[in-house]
Amino acid sequence: MTEPASNRTALTVAVWAWVALPFGYGVYELIRKATQLFTG
Question: What is the average per-residue pLDDT within 12-37?
Answer without folding.
Answer: 97
